[in-house]
Amino acid sequence: MKRVTPKSDGGTTQKALLGLLSLGSMSGYDIRALISWSIGHFWSESYGQIYPALKRLAALGLVEKKTERTKGRPDRHVYSLTRQGQVQLKEWLRLSPVAEVQRNELLLKLFFGRHTGVDVSRAHVLALVVTQQSALRVYEAIGKRLRREKKNDPSLPYWLMTLSYGRHRSEALLQWAKETLRVLERMERGEVWRKERGDAHK
Amino acid sequence: MKRVTPKSDGGTTQKALLGLLSLGSMSGYDIRALISWSIGHFWSESYGQIYPALKRLAALGLVEKKTERTKGRPDRHVYSLTRQGQVQLKEWLRLSPVAEVQRNELLLKLFFGRHTGVDVSRAHVLALVVTQQSALRVYEAIGKRLRREKKNDPSLPYWLMTLSYGRHRSEALLQWAKETLRVLERMERGEVWRKERGDAHK
DNA sequence: GGGTGCATGTAATGGGTTACATGATTCT
DNA sequence: AGAATCATGTAACCCATTACATGCACCC
């Protein structure tokens, strides 16, 4: 049986691109570059998504394409929002965000941690510490850049909110990691202790 | 050109199923039910994944299928880990977890919040408050159940760690939401103030 | 009589990454 | 000489959800 509802609103990728183009006209390549230091800490798109999506958006009349000829390099295809695109973007922004599906491989491995023992779990948790510390440094760098280069942009407070989200989250995860490492250590000592009395290894 | 490396290790779904089956033999239906109150807060699988994956695992010899006839109901297909399956699971557990791609629609909408104004952003943040508060209640309920029913299970500490992760995360997000709501309010007042002097609306 | 739970599975559809393909320019 | 950057795009594949398909039992 065929699906009746067309359904396909094109997905969030298209909406994200509309949003980015609302900051200024850009090529697919530019978009990728912009993502990395603006929304890269909570959103990602690959070329395999970006280029086809831009084409579809153009076909829908939500963006407009202009080709800039350059010497040597391939032509730059610069896209800009149309009025329709602006409207669509605003409509989408009002809808409440759909809850994302959580899939946390670290927690999955930790959950089954008994099969490997304390040291493997500890290594996984320590890896999280490293990534979150580096995430915090990234947030700081982006924050500085924003406050310097976008001092008078009316969007600045919104951008800082997303950074703050990342900071809160990372700091909480670091706190959790600290506690978890303590627990793992206690477990290790407990295991040794039990082992000496001969009732370890199930 | 054909891909040379077979690549397909079957993905994490299969590994998650191996893990769950390490807790006891189960049917696909049981697995879905178990997920919801054990790893449901950080992992999800749909039937459309579970049934085909179990079939593949059986073909690989990592699980064994036994059919239980029941009256009235369809046959129950109960799967259990084979020795090979246990080995595979342990091997996978040792590998460091791959970082998951973040895709946070709330932050995306907040990032472009200027296009809609303060009240829309506020609504989105308030929705987050609701979901995180309910998440906290879920964690509490699961914690109680675990401490009651799995008092002597050697895996208990690992399971509690994953719960604690959720708690830390949710509490941090609530904290962030509180701060963000304050910022939004300040912005609103700022906007009004400016509006009265006639330089609002970009 | 109708909803919910038990119980299995497949097909259509959608979303997304990675590898491939191309090729000039600029920096080291 | 070789790597990195600019710049575009497609094809293959993988992963995942949702809807469909089926049907009995039990409770209200």
Would you kindly provide a written description of the structure presented here, covering whatever features stand out?
2 copies of one chain form a homodimer. With 202 residues, chain A is mostly helical. In chain A, 63% of the residues lie in helices and 6% in strands. Chain A has helices spanning 11-21, 28-38, 47-59, 83-94, 105-111, 118-149, 156-197, and strands at residues 63-68, 76-81. A two-stranded antiparallel sheet of chain A has the order 1-2. In chain A, a hairpin with a 7-residue loop joins strand 1 (63-68) and strand 2 (76-81). In chain A, helix 2 (28-38) crosses helix 3 (47-59) and helix 6 packs antiparallel against helix 7. Chain B binds a DNA duplex (28 and 28 nucleotides) through residues 1-3, 7-8, 11-13, 27-29, 44-49, 51-52, 55, 70-77, 101.
What's this, in brief?
Two copies of one chain form a homodimer. Chain A has a two-stranded antiparallel sheet with strand order 1-2. Chain A has helices spanning 11-21, 28-38, 47-59, 83-94, 105-111, 118-149, 156-197, and strands at residues 63-68, 76-81.
Oligomer: homodimer
Using the CA coordinates, give the radius of gyration of chain A: 24 Å
Could you estimate the helical fraction of the residues of chain A in percent?
55-70%
Biggest sheet: strand arrangement of chain A = 1-2
Q: Hey, roughly how much beta strand do the residues of chain A contain?
A: 5-15%
Number of helices of chain A: 7
Quick one: overall form of chain A? elongated
Structure classification of chain A: mainly alpha
The major β-sheet of chain A equals: 2 strands, antiparallel
SSE series of chain A: HHHEEHHHH
- Which pair of protein chains has the largest interface, and what are the residue counts? A-B, 64 and 64 residues
Number of separate strands of chain A = 2
How far is it from the N-terminal to the C-terminal residue of chain A, by CA? 53 Å
